[in-house]
Write a structure and sequence with these properties.
The chain is mainly alpha-helical. The strands form 3 sheets. A 3-stranded antiparallel β-sheet has the order 1-2-3, with helices on one face. Strands 4-5-8 form a 3-stranded antiparallel β-sheet. Strands 6-7 form a two-stranded antiparallel ribbon. Strand 1 and strand 2 form a beta hairpin. Helix 7 crosses helix 11 and helix 8 packs across helix 12. The radius of gyration is 30 Å and the shape is elongated.
């Protein structure tokens, strides 16, 4: 068994060459790129590999060895086509995977073979992303972890080459408008443009996401029963199901219903369109909200999702049950809904009242025992 320096696409590495002759005269040779990054580690790996081949004994089967694992960059298109697109992941999820690979995974690990991505390489990736928030780092690590598990499932690699541990990420602070701020924004949007006014109400009075606002059609509006059917979302030019894959029904407030009735048109099936009938896109909506925020004296940014946070926060502040908020907002888990429950003003008072009642009951019981 010998180890020599080898270069693959300009990258320095080590090639292990194993030559064996079995007692029956059969010859066996295996020449493979070492997964280790140093000569001494490659030598140890080669010795272990040679012992494994000898211990196997049946060299007729040993000759049918697994081919060398592809590099991360080589396997990426196969992973995206055979896993992400084959499983019909949402276009936004596919775009996110592609962006994380292009910006973070490819520069650090693109030329590494999948079976050479060890724990040290994962730590180097974390180090490169050290300036990012833990949640952003975890998003990249999750994509890498999924890719390696798919490679194992497809028998591209024989075992997972590393253990990926996510960073501890604290829950993000939920931003929302106070009631007075939200009402100022509604008034400013109403004076600005009917579409902007309607978009603000769809977010703050009905809890729709950006893509759900853009995808709303007139057939989804039931004025008779004052209901909205949220059953599609738009991402760029793609129309998909709402996040979580489940449609939902949201009752309308009276002012949202009035705004929809006043805005009724026949230019398109979509509710929010330009004068020529073409649907508005997210960039126009963000710009319109940014202008409304400026006129309302609020921090600018065109952040449509803050309207949805405001919707959930308003419900929590009015002591609406958590399960009801989850159903109205379309949250997949109660954990997401719980981020808003600290805004319930009655819950702390009820807790202290219960504690106080228990203390009074204890005092009365003590007095009764003493009298007896």
């Amino acid at each position: 068994m010998t180890v020599r320096v080898a270069r693959r696409k300009g990258r320095r590495g080590y090639e292990v060459d194993i030559r064996l002759r079995f007692p029956d005269g059969a010859r066996y040779r295996e020449r493979v790129q070492s997964p280790a990054s140093t000569y001494s580690a490659s030598l140890r790996w080669g010795q272990l590999r040679e012992a494994q081949v000898v211990a196997d004994g049946n060299h007729s089967e040993v000759k049918c060895m697994r081919p060398a694992a592809p590099t991360l960059a080589e396997f990426w298109p196969r992973f995206m086509e055979g896993h992400a697109r084959a499983n019909q992941e949402k276009p936004s999820s596919i775009d996110t995977r592609e962006r994380l690979f292009r910006l973070h995974l490819k520069p650090v690990m693109g030329e590494l073979r999948l079976d050479a991505i060890d724990d040290e390489q994962v730590q180097r990736l974390k180090g490169r992303l050290s300036r990012q928030k833990p949640k952003s780092v975890n998003n990249t690590l999750t994509v890498l972890n999924k890719l390696l598990k798919v490679a194992l499932e497809w028998k591209v690699i024989g075992a997972l080459p590393c253990t990926i541990r996510l960073l501890k990420a604290s829950p993000s602070v939920v931003e929302f408008y106070e009631e007075s701020e939200y009402e100022r924004l509604v008034d400013a949007a109403k004076k600005l443009d009917p579409r902007t006014h309607l978009a603000v109400l769809l977010g703050g009075d009905a809890g729709l996401r950006l893509g759900e606002i853009l995808g709303l059609e007139w057939t989804d509006v039931d004025n008779g029963r004052s209901l909205l059917k949220v059953q599609r979302a738009v991402y760029l030019s793609h129309v998909t199901l709402p996040k979580g894959g489940k449609p939902r029904v949201v009752p309308m407030t009276s002012r949202l219903r009035s705004a929809l009735v006043a805005h009724r048109h026949l230019r398109s099936d979509r509710v929010l369109v330009h004068e020529d009938g073409t649907p508005v896109d997210k960039w126009w909506l963000k710009w319109a909200l940014d202008v409304a925020e400026r006129r309302a004296g609020l921090r600018r940014g065109g952040r449509v999702h803050i309207l949805r946070h405001t919707f959930c926060s308003r419900l929590a502040a009015r002591n609406v049950p958590m399960l009801t908020i989850q159903a109205l907002a379309g949250h997949e888990s109660l954990e997401t809904t719980q981020r808003y429950m600290h805004l319930s003003s009655a819950a702390p008072r009820e807790g202290i009242a219960a504690l106080e009642a228990g203390s009074n009951g204890g005092a009365e019981l003590t007095g009764l025992n003493e009298s007896q």
